[in-house]
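2024-03-11 09:14:02 INFO receiving multi-entity request
2024-03-11 09:14:02 INFO entity count = two
2024-03-11 09:14:03 INFO echoing inputs for audit
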Amino acid sequence: MSSVNTTAHSVVEPTATSKRIAGAIVILYALVTMVPLAWIFLTSIKSPPDSISYPPKIVFTPTLEGYCNLFTTRTRQTPDYIQSLPPPTGTCDEITRSRNMVIAGPSNYWPRFGNSLLIAFGSTFLAVSLGTLAAYGFSRFRVPLADDLLFFILSTRMMPPIAVAIPIYLMYRQLGLSDTALGMILLYTAVNVSLAVWLLKGFIDEIPREYEEAAMIDGYTRLQAFWKVVLPQATTGIAATAIFCLIFAWNEYAFAVLLTSGSAQTAPPFIPTIIGEGGQDWPAVAAGTTIFLVPILVFTIILRKQLLRGITFGAVRK
Amino acid sequence: MLARSTPAAIAIQVRGLSDRAIAWLFITPAIALLLAINIFPLIWAVYLSFTNFRANRPNAEVEGVGLRNYQRVLNDPDIWIAMQTTAHFVFWTILLQTAIGFALAYLIDRKFRGHAFWTTVILIPMMLSPAVVGNFWRFLYQPQIGLFNYIVSFFSGIAPSSFEMLGSVTLAPWAIIIVDTWMWTPYVMLICLAGLRSIPDYIYEAAEVDRASAWRQFWSITVPMALPFIMLAVLFRGIENFKMFDMVMLLTGGGPGSTTEVASITLKREAFESWLTGRSSAFAIILFVAVFGLANVYVKALNKVKQR
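2024-03-11 09:21:47 INFO inference complete, emitting structure
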């Protein structure tokens, strides 16, 4: 698989040919990895019969049925009853009737998606706020046992989430936090804050202390110096950390599936439970998946530079 | 005393909160939260592992049972099989992801036209939710109608309905390894790329002057210099895959039989289906200690490589 050119050419400035070959292989790999994602989108705009046809269809008539089924719950009715109804009120109504069904009400998809938004953004905001403060504290003041403390905090992430979920489950049952958005926000904050402190300490360490000291000589208190001098300097690092926390909270499944069941359930445990008549309704599942993936896709493309450091645990400083 | 301090130090002492107060004020909230939701449950889990408590019977009498839970876990053949399954997954996913990831990083480092754009495209799978995407892979793996089976049969001529990726004892582990590799190869690639970019050009230039072949340069400069980064990627992936849960749960649920039952799935079954809270806590602690120990040994090795 490795493509080392055995001809003597410079590694520093590869020849045009070797660049072209390298490019071709990378592009081929990229296209292959995109196939499942393309298929998710294509399936979301197929009708249920088209989605399970053999051979798999690439050419088909697109329909919004998957999205309609995702957003609604439906009941089956007799054709006579459907004939007797007033004319359909929209595309979804029409599609549903053509399948001899009527829309009974909205599905749980948007509430679950809303939970995902609330919990992901809430926990990210908290983790980054607490993380920034603690990182500044660790960076600028001598805290006894700071390094050991940080390392221990980070090592708790080595626990399988299920292992932590047992006592959390019991604790939340006592405190009335099970299946609440607040409980999930606090949990995700706790999981993320150790990483946030770690990353942010790295960023704040790079901001010279002289800036604050100069500001303090000019009459700022330390709090003002922190707020007006350090924070603006750390925005890039804070953004990188926030993205990382957000992606974790957005994608998390294990805690969510064990600790939420209804009112605070997020989208990842909900999407696999979308069923139609006779098993999984794949166009609807694909539609739910597509909507859920879009924000992250946009994120990845816009913010890939900031992501680099977050993903690699601050190991990559370029 | 004040006369010998710097002006800045005086300014700090004179106005506003003292530094000590600020240090406490800033660090306490984060630590308090971690103690409440990270450390305290951990201690509770340790306590529970020495009792016969069952979470579905919160009002029953709780008795201390000493080390019995640990004894039972370590003598349970199913647990050892789950550990083997986990090790099997960790080994193959790391091997494949490191090989493909490093190769890709090496090729991207040739800096062909458009490499930045294609790097971003390759990164996409790892940003997505393993649960949500893993769930969809079940559809791709359907025999007969699934795209995966169709593509395999298109290139190999095997009938698409003749093999079940998720239903066969031999293929199910590979179904999971394929999805995991698809998702996480970009991650290894990214770290390897950082490693390759950290090698200064002048080393290669010196090798050029010495007439070292490209092959020779690759094995005596590129690989050794990038090794600490490769090892770092292996560490992160190893820890993550030791905890593997989402994808396995949604693709096979541990089946068929228990061929893909990894440690986390066993843990979930013990804790949330059999409700053996004490035993599952003991298993959780054993897992944690094992990963923590292995990771520490590994980090020591990594530091040795770095110092070379």
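2024-03-11 09:21:48 INFO post-check: Chain B touches chain A through 122 residues (CB under 8 Å).
2024-03-11 09:21:48 INFO post-check: The mean pLDDT of chain B is 89.
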